[in-house]
Design brief:
alpha/beta; Aspartate Aminotransferase, domain 1; Aspartate Aminotransferase, domain 2; seven-stranded mixed sheet; 38% helix; 18% strand
């Protein structure tokens, strides 16, 4: 009996807890670059990229070759027991690539949540303070501390009770929805006045471009004022670049476009081309605050993932993927804006590089989110052979995270499918 998506979904429901969500009722059999095939042999264009994990595409030949070569040497020792050169080499490269004119060191771990957890640990150890300021709409992970930082209860922490304390929420600037840089800065000052003194705050953490929150880009003047505020009060600035990093925004790290450097930078997702790897890079003096044994993990900085990440960095250089990122962003955005011109249900098309969002609203009113239409577009696009994602506080934002290696013809076909969906639904 041949496997079907439906039969596998039945097995999944019986074996896997419902808390593990699944956007599309599809089981992938194989993938190449920006194309995936399900177990029934149907082909799809992948505009999701494993949620920003596949900037170099599925199974890039150079990444595959690096992993195969590493597998002939060693797959695991635990870096804290027996070290290996790929870990050190990757840290050297990351230290050189992360913005900031200061000496840096890098810690490698396994997931984005783990990277954020460790960034907070380092900030607390460095400052001797416990408080952290995060932002509305922010997403920083699903572990306990990161859920405290994540600015969205449903579905991430619903039913789990109050998350760890010492987290305070400021407003993330968003001109589209009436939150100015002044408003955002004033919300931080209110925290200082009402909730915690600056001397109690270890770090301020934010995404340079919000991921789950809807792909809103932090204004440069806000980031610069945030940097000045942190310097004034001895607070560490943490840039969560888990989704924006590894070239998604047109620079390898989005903070390169913000005019200031963070004290600590978290990264994950696309850094290793589909293999689990994450990390924290920061000022060497801060990174060295914690004593030996206070950082690390059994699988942290797997030699296989390190080999993959080194290959990813080479691919970016050899294939000029940062330039390609800008071209992908321009091509897709131009296509989406042409659709917007015909449909007032599209309130805004926005991007930084190839981190692209389409915000849907009711009847042209940007303040009336339309999650129903968003879900319908995602479902209809799937029927037509395109894998899309949604996001946003109200679930009304379509997001595009297509591999940067996708050919133009495939980008155009994907945009054409989106156009068909709006023509049929909106």
């Amino acid at each position: 009996m041949s496997k079907t998506n439906e039969s596998l979904m039945q097995r999944r429901v019986a074996a896997v807890p419902r808390g593990v969500g699944q956007i599309h009722p599809i089981f992938c059999e194989r993938a190449e670059n920006a194309t995936v095939w399900d177990v029934e042999g149907r082909e799809y264009i992948d505009f999701a990229g494993g949620i920003a994990v596949l900037n170099t595409g599925h199974l890039h030949p150079k990444v595959v070759a690096a992993v195969q070569k590493q597998l002939t040497k060693v797959s695991h020792t635990c870096f804290q027991v027996l070290a290996y050169e790929p870990y050190v080499e990757l840290c050297e490269k990351i230290n050189a690539m992360v913005p900031g004119d200061f000496d840096k060191k890098t810690l490698l771990v396994t997931t984005g949540s783990e990277a954020v957890e460790n960034a907070v640990k380092i900030a607390r150890a460095t400052t001797g303070r416990a408080g952290v300021i995060a932002f509305t709409g922010g997403y920083h992970g699903r572990t306990m501390m990161t859920l405290g930082l994540t600015g969205k209860v449903v579905p991430y922490s619903a039913g789990m009770g109050i998350m760890p304390g010492n987290t305070f929420r400021a407003q993330y600037p968003c001109a589209l929805h009436g939150v100015s840089t002044d408003d955002a800065m004033a919300s931080i000052e209110r925290i200082f006045k009402n909730d915690a003194e600056p001397r109690d705050i270890a770090a301020i953490i934010l995404e340079p471009v919000q991921g789950e929150g809807g792909f809103y880009v932090a204004p440069k003047d806000f980031m610069q004022r945030l940097r000045a505020l942190c310097d004034q009060h001895g607070i560490l600035l943490i840039a969560d670049e888990v989704q924006t990093g590894a070239g998604r925004t047109g620079t390898f790290f989005a903070m390169e476009q913000m005019g200031v450097a963070a004290d600590l930078t978290t990264f994950a997702k696309s850094i290793a081309g589909g293999f689990p790897l994450a990390g924290v890079c920061g000022k060497a003096e801060y990174m060295d605050t914690i004593a030996p044994g206070g950082l690390g993990g059994t699988y942290a900085g797997s030699p296989i993932a390190c080999a993959a990440a080194l290959a990813v960095i080479e691919v970016f250089e050899e294939e000029k993927l940062l330039d390609r990122c800008k071209a992908v962003g321009e091509r897709v955005v131009n296509g989406l804006k042409a659709i917007q011109a015909r449909h007032n249900s599209i309130g805004e098309v926005r991007n930084l590089g190839a981190m692209i969002a389409v915000e849907l609203c009711e009847g042209g009113d940007i303040h009336q989110p339309n999650p129903t239409l968003t879900g319908q577009v995602v479902a209809k696009a799937r029927e037509k052979g395109l894998i899309l994602l949604s996001c946003g506080t109200y679930g009304n934002v379509l997001r595009v995270l297509v591999p940067l290696t996708a050919p133009d013809a495939q980008l155009d076909k994907g945009v054409a499918i989106i156009a068909e969906c709006f023509d049929e639904l909106a």
